[in-house]
Amino acid sequence: MGNLKKILLSVSIACGASFSASAQCESYTMDWNALSSDYNPQPEWLKDAKFGIYLHWGVYSVPAYSYEWYPRHMFMPSRKEYAYHKAHYGDPAEFGYEKLVPMFTAEKFDAKEWVDLFQKAGAKFGGQVAEHHDGFAMWNSSITPWNAALMGPKRDVLREYSDELRKHGMKVMTTFHHARLLQRYRDTKNPQDPDFWDMYDSHFPYLEGMPTTSDNPMLRLLYGNVTPEEFYDPIWFGELKEVIDNYQPDIIYFDAWLDKIPEEYLYKFSKYYIEDGRKRNKDVAIFRKQGDLPLNVSMEILEKSRKQEIVPQLWTTEETISTDSWCYTEDMELRESRDLVNVLIDVVSKNGVLLLNVSPRADGVIPVEQQEILLGIGDWLNVNGEAIYGTRPWYTFGEGPTAQPEGDFANHKEFMKLKYSPEDVRYTTKGDAVYAITLGMPEAGKTVCFKGFGSVASKAHKVKNVSVLGTNEPIKWDHASDGLRVQVPAMNGDKALVFKVELDQN
């Protein structure tokens, strides 16, 4: 740890602030089963919440070009980001990523405006990227000087945002993508080798003549140009501990690549977070991808994809409000609120939780176009939320002609093209009610048949009433042998329609 201590000392002198290196990872007898013996990785509050909103917002929002991997690709001569950066800011060898930091001023950031909007959209928890692959922390850190309280906005963004979420009665999530920050391929690959550019395990490429290879102590920290031992603790684990201690998030999310972190550090984090939750009497959750942590201490999160069936363990999927980039770009193409409502319904019907990403501009403003999408979701939930919040899966998730793609993120482009129809139905249940939801507005006067009510399992309970959320109009219905036949009332709008089916439980 000696080298990193020297780096931090020199940085402290230069910045007039104090930064510290924590102790090496202490020895653990790792017992994942014992760790989870009295820990519930699927908190009841999350099972009820169903919907959260978070955001990608940081220094990478400044160029507003391409997507959030701009910090990596701007150094690669074969990439469009390199050409863009050179044309707009200068040669990356001279104008590195670190020189974009002062341009990230967030002068219009207003945490209350954000949280007011997210609550109107119907979210029950909120979050933000605490640190992306780019090494810039969005909180007041004593581990790295590259943080929003000391540079750029010169505000503790995470403090303002998390405090405002809690004032609104919402849970707080922080996401960490910094497992990729360590430069793992220094001096091991030839930049002339095409495979060199595929080394995604390290966000910043080690290229001679670029700031990514600088000996400057400050730049070494930003670009992950440290040894693995220095990186794992204090940087990887130390930053997590710092956020846990000072901000008490209800959820910590990891964006894959934890297989590059030694297991002892993964265990150390999990143990610390779970035990901290116990001390604070908090039911905390850990989201992870690609099997990066055991499911007895974590929850599976998918990216831009969904389950095919109901699964027993609660799971999460993340979608973004655009069709491509997770951060704001000038030319981003946005999704439609009705499609995102359908994704939410499909996810909830299969025992899932939807996490939706939004993309503020570098100045902290969420563009009006994105706000309108969120408010469209909120308008639907304001009428139909009882079919979502606090529900559980029925015996079947649904029926209909639209088939989903197979697989996870590898097929995300096919998931993006997916369009449901009013003939597609999803079910949720709560108390003595089953909610049959058409993924679109069926034609008024048409009779629809909910086949889920034609099974032996559903006939164990007698249907006593059918209504439609959002109208007091009496509904004509008949529980036939092939299912529940219901006549569609005249309704406004083009989003999903919810039929509330009340059952006689006696």
Can you give me a brief rundown of this structure?
By secondary structure, this protein is of the alpha/beta class. It has helices spanning 2-15, 32-35, 44-49, 70-73, 80-88, 111-120, 157-167, 217-222, 228-247, 263-279, 337-349, 368-384, 412-417, 456-459; strands at residues 51-55, 125-131, 171-176, 251-254, 285-288, 299-303, 315-320, 352-358, 398-399, 425-430, 433-438, 447-450, 462-468, 477-480, 483-487, 497-504.
Annotation keywords:
single chain, 506 residues, alpha/beta, TIM Barrel, Immunoglobulin-like, 2 domains, 8-stranded parallel β-barrel, 5-stranded antiparallel beta sheet, 14 helices, 28% helix
Mean pLDDT equals 93
Q: Within the largest sheet, what's the order of strands?
A: 1-2-3-4-5-6-7-8
Distance between the termini: 67 Å
Question: Could you give me the name of the CATH homologous superfamily of the largest domain?
Answer: Glycosidases
In terms of DSSP E residues, the strand content is 15-25%
User: If you consult CATH, what is the topology of the largest domain?
Assistant: TIM Barrel
The total number of structural domains is 2
Largest sheet: 8 strands, parallel, barrel
Describe the protein.
It is a single chain. The chain has two domains: 35-62 and 104-182 and 226-387, TIM Barrel; 398-504, Golgi alpha-mannosidase II (Immunoglobulin-like). The protein is α/β, with parallel strands linked by helices. The protein is elongated. Helix 6 packs across helix 12, helix 9 (228-247) runs parallel beside helix 10 (263-279) and helix 11 (337-349) crosses helix 12 (368-384). The model has no long low-confidence stretch (mean pLDDT 93). The protein contains 14 helices and 16 strands. The strands form three sheets. An eight-stranded parallel beta barrel has the order 1-2-3-4-5-6-7-8. Strands 9-10-11-16-13 form a five-stranded antiparallel β-sheet, covered by helices on one side. Strands 12-15-14 form a three-stranded antiparallel β-sheet, with no helix packed on it.
